[in-house]
Design brief:
The protein has 321 residues and is mainly α. It is 47% helix and 9% strand.
Length: 321
Amino acid sequence: MQQVQVNGELSDEVPVESGVPQGSILGPILFDVFIDDLDECAALIDILIKFADDTKGMKEMVTDDDRRKMQETIDKIYTWSQDWGMEFNVGKCKIMHIGRTNPRHEYYMNGIKLTTTEEEKDVGVLIHSSLKPSRQCEKAAMTASGVLGQVTRNFHFRDRHVFVQLYKQYVRPHLEFATPAWSPWLTGDKERLEKVQQKMVRQISGLTGVTYEEKCEELGLETLEERRIRADLVQAFKIIHGLDRVRMELLFDIRENRPGTRQANDHLHIYQERARLDLRKNWFTLRVADLWNKIPIEIKSNSNLQHFKRYLLTQDEGRTG
């Protein structure tokens, strides 16, 4: 039952026969229960990801039978949505083909051909079918540059401490949001992000440093690339120690290091698989492996996240010093 209160007066009670009130305590739990059996429709595909009312299914395409399984899964999911009165908006359902050898099959929902997309936003990050982060870098730099412009126009007296704090609070988060998922490796993409911080540094007068790196050190700042490396290691730490709700075995192959090596007793050693393409070499799970394996076992085996972060900070300070 539900009521509406206006100026202290309650309306009559009315029954709620479907849906849940937005913002209620039980709402998320009831919604989870409602969509829990959706996984049963996806037994034929490789991955099903559910985030609130946004569902994604993925399957590797090798044979025509794989195409059939994907189409059958879409049909089952649509039937499920009809049975439970939660019909999909077919116009918003899209297909993204990933990989140069992808056969780019067509798929249908309720007899309507699904639109093919090259780019979609997923939890705030732009995902391109090439899996390259260039568009996300462009978006992040453009947004951060716009915010920096607003700060610059409104604060004419640029005290270095205040201005740097404003930059850290309002500008830099746009350049660093979820970087383990899209950290760039192309020089142009790295420079596009770094230029925003370089622009901020140039606007502060009275610095004695000559190079950009010297000025950053004077301001107590690190380059964005250094911060992305630390963010990768922190994310790996969270996954390996179960601090994030991510199945570690899906991302990392943890195995005891080979006897006779310098890190023979490292039970948290990440096995680094070989990769041919730059795209794969620079993927989070591969690019972080070598950095992680170089950390002393007594540091990375301690499950205290703050202790791990302090260690990384001391390493960064040692390099700049």
